[in-house]
């Protein structure tokens, strides 16, 4: 929340999350939204995310050893960085209030350190943007299970062909599912209920909180109204 001594002009220049003069402690939304990055929480998310992706790649390696083809590993290795470095930044992150913070890299709790290749867009994501993001997000999150199931079935039918790869795939899959459960708890059980990126399909912030946040940020509210959002 911007310091009241700055007047309304200051709040129109940047949203309160990006404004270094904001006095978040006295804001009525303090604790209801993730407006300030908690490094401990951000580090937990980073560790979970990186571990998830490493295990996913390992699944495709062991599955490839079993099935004798590598198209799943190659496609995942290409689409994964493309999603995080280009697609998600453009379709989702560029709408997030954290994106307006100064600097060439993101300073948020989720994709901290990613390069800001696009301009900040205060309005909400379009249905097309959400759909495309959902497709890519589903692929990088769920496709490893396809590789795992395919590999395990192949191993069950040909157990003597590559015992090392089969056992390795089973162990990696178990670890993957454990990390996925941990990751889901961080997101769906906590972050998604307080995330300030209201455009995300996974966002669970109550509508009244969204409304109060937009009331405090006229520039962002104007962009949302112009996009069809109704102030009810």
Strand content: under 5%
Number of helices: 7
Percentage of residues in helical conformation: 55-70%
Count up the domains: 1
Report the radius of gyration as a whole number of Å.
Answer: 21 Å
What is the chains' assembly state? Answer: single chain
* Overall average pLDDT: 90
The biggest sheet, with number of strands, parallel, antiparallel or mixed sense and barrel status, is: none
Structural class: mainly alpha
Shape: elongated
Please give the number of β-strands: 0
Unreliable sequence segments:
1-11
Distance between the termini: 22 Å
N-to-C series of helices and strands: HHHHHHH
Task: Please describe what this structure looks like.
This protein has 232 residues and is mainly α. The protein has one domain. Helices cover 56% and strands 0% of the residues. The chain contains seven helices and no strands. The chain has helices spanning 8-13, 39-67, 71-91, 127-157, 163-188, 207-215, 218-226. The longest helix is centred in the middle third of the chain and has 31 residues, at 127-157. The chain is elongated. The relative contact order is 0.16. Mean pLDDT is 90; it is low at 1-11.
């Amino acid at each position: 929340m911007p310091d009241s001594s700055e007047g309304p002009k200051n709040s129109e220049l940047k949203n309160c999350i990006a404004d270094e003069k904001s006095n978040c402690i006295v804001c009525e939304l303090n604790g209801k939204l993730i407006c300030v990055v908690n490094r401990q929480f951000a580090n937990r998310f980073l560790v979970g995310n990186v571990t998830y992706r490493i295990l996913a790649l390992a699944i495709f390696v062991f599955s490839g050893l079993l099935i004798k083809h590598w198209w799943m590993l190659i496609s995942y290795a290409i689409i994964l960085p493309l999603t995080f470095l280009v697609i998600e930044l453009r379709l989702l992150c560029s709408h997030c209030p954290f994106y307006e913070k100064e600097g060439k890299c993101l300073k948020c709790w989720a994709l901290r350190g990613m390069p800001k290749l696009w301009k900040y867009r205060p309005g909400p994501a379009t249905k097309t943007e959400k759909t495309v993001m959902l497709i890519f997000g589903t692929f990088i999150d769920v496709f490893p299970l396809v590789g795992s199931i395919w590999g395990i079935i192949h191993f069950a039918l040909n157990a003597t062909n590559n015992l090392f790869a089969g056992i390795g795939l089973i162990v990696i899959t178990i670890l993957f599912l454990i990390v996925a459960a941990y990751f889901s708890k961080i997101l769906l059980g906590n972050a998604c209920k307080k995330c300030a990126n209201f455009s995300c399909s996974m966002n669970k912030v109550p509508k009244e909180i969204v409304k109060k946040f937009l009331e405090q940020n006229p520039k962002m509210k104007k962009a949302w109204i112009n996009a069809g959002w109704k102030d009810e």
